[in-house]
Amino acid sequence: MTETASRPTLEAVAARAGVSRATVSRVVNGGEGVRETLVERVRRAVEELGYVPNQAARSLVTRRHDAVAVVIAEPETRVFADPFFALQLRGISKELTVHDSQLVLLLTEGREDYARVGRYLAGGHVDGALVFSLHLDDPLPGLIHGAGVPTVFGGRPGWSDGMRVNGPTVYVDSDNRGGAREAVRHLVGLGHTRIAHITGPLDQTCAVDRLDGFRDVMVDADPRLIVGSDFTPVGGERAMRELLERCPELDAVFAANDLSASGALRVLRERGRRVPEDVAVVGFDDMLPVAEQTDPPLTTVRQDIEEMGRLMARLLLRGLEQRGRDEQGSVGGAPSSVVLPTTLVRRASA
Amino acid sequence: MTETASRPTLEAVAARAGVSRATVSRVVNGGEGVRETLVERVRRAVEELGYVPNQAARSLVTRRHDAVAVVIAEPETRVFADPFFALQLRGISKELTVHDSQLVLLLTEGREDYARVGRYLAGGHVDGALVFSLHLDDPLPGLIHGAGVPTVFGGRPGWSDGMRVNGPTVYVDSDNRGGAREAVRHLVGLGHTRIAHITGPLDQTCAVDRLDGFRDVMVDADPRLIVGSDFTPVGGERAMRELLERCPELDAVFAANDLSASGALRVLRERGRRVPEDVAVVGFDDMLPVAEQTDPPLTTVRQDIEEMGRLMARLLLRGLEQRGRDEQGSVGGAPSSVVLPTTLVRRASA
DNA sequence: TTGAAAGCGCTAACAC
DNA sequence: GTGTTAGCGCTTTCAA
């Protein structure tokens, strides 16, 4: 532990430099319209005293915080077994850094945490929020709306467009449906006909969209070939066993993400089915540490997760700027949602 | 994006409840020493107006922030290919939540970011800092010290004890050396004699400690059996190839972490060496998604990473409380470093 | 028990 | 250009 020395204030710097507080403030905030010699003098005083502005005081008057909350609402353990969030965080962090904004991470581990998050958001700590992993029945959007904080969502939220209470909902998403279609078409192109799908949790839109994409191609798929799962390796194993039991003759599997695909691969190996000769497998995400590590390496649908994070931050910050420019009811130029393309990455599994 | 309504202030609540600001403040902060009827009246006004305290204003006077910075200084991409940090974060987040404190994440992607972090820490945004992944030549400790922020380190920092400028350095670490010893002894117990070691980056103390543990047991190890690496799967592959070239007759490998062990396993399989029959492999970390997923599943040294995170937060908060109690130069009761035990987890690879 | 009043450190009009 | 002044919203003595 280190000591907390009491820090010098603007006042002290002003005294030392022999100018007024206002002048110091001007210099500290860019130095526009201050004589060069004074700027110099103030800079020196700042340096000598080791002055750093007190943000609480600054925020109190400017009402800006240069901080953005990232809310990750994922009760399950999964969040952290999955590089997904980490990658998004990284993209966000990079973009925020460029704009000199800080990242405040709010993780919720259960319903009890929601009140805390709501309080925090409403407490005027941050300029905006980035929100992930919404489930259909999530109370979070309500809280956020109540807190009145500008928000960009990661992944299309599940509610209908009616929710445009104050301005449209802004989100960044991948083309989950299109990506899924491409994956399944690839399997079809390889000559497979009995293609199964291991879904993600269907209370999240990305899982639903991937299922829809699967159905787009396999228009009259045998319902026994679709089995629900949860994006985890263990869930993937379970689903694969179920599938093998229901339809031993299946010849391909499209898993809703790489993690569940890895579980499926394990079961296939265990059961002596060769991949891709007996059963071809395609995943989704292109999570490198997973997809490249499986045996055989996984053919999968790539989405640029880091870019999604970066984009979310960019949209949010742009929106904040907008709002700053025209203080009331900004109409034109408000940012709108973005859907990023996906690409199929061919490896050995299909 | 959502609208930012201007929030009601203490003043407004006071007016509505027909009391003074001071009374409202008391009620909001617990309500000690206020007549029950008034408490009730104020609570109702708060409710009706949807009042939430402005934290900037509060911090300005209390000098507390109920926020802790987590600094992750890892220039390489590795940070996020590795569940390690995510797990620590999770432990930290849980503990902070209990104490109603917020987590502010500061990621540094390169030297340029350091100044920003220093500024932030010094800016009085947070009550303390939790710092990870220090490399030997890291400028971060200096910055932190300059910022005068109470800090707990994750992993023993590399500097000598002399650095106790203001109070001893507090850290939380695993018993890396002991764990390594146990791993190697296990291999010895299995009858292996030509045991190799794939190290981590030796500018981090955990990697050095694991190497030391290896040497403790293999007192006069053939230097060709020790090869440097970097904690990544690819690094592990490279190291394994190198080892196989230098010493084709090796019969066991202790890798400094699971990720590099997974790379080593892949190379061994590729070269047709059976694991564990021809070459036994032990990792370190017991990162479940890695260790259980490898083929064969990895025998490894488990460290409770989430617990480390939790403990770091706990030590920091305890220190802050201490400091709150006795405002000057707290002597007794200051928290001190903790080293957590490790355990060997036997799976199939050794 | 409650209220009045004095700031916390800073910015932003507004004068000079 | 530079200084003066009035708050931002809250907590916290100090009196009543």
UniProtKB/TrEMBL annotation, chains A, B:
Domain called HTH lacI-type: residue spans: 8-62
Sample GO molecular function, one term: transcription cis-regulatory region binding
DNA-binding in keyword set: yes
Annotated PROSITE patterns: HTH_LACI_2 (PS50932)
Annotated keywords: DNA-binding, Transcription, Transcription regulation
Pfam families per record: LacI, Peripla_BP_3
InterPro entries associated with the record: HTH_LacI (IPR000843), LacI/GalR-like_sensor (IPR046335), Lambda_DNA-bd_dom_sf (IPR010982), Peripla_BP_I (IPR028082)
Gene3D superfamilies: 3.40.50.2300, lambda repressor-like DNA-binding domains
Protein name in the entry: LacI family transcriptional regulator
Originating species: Streptomyces capitiformicae
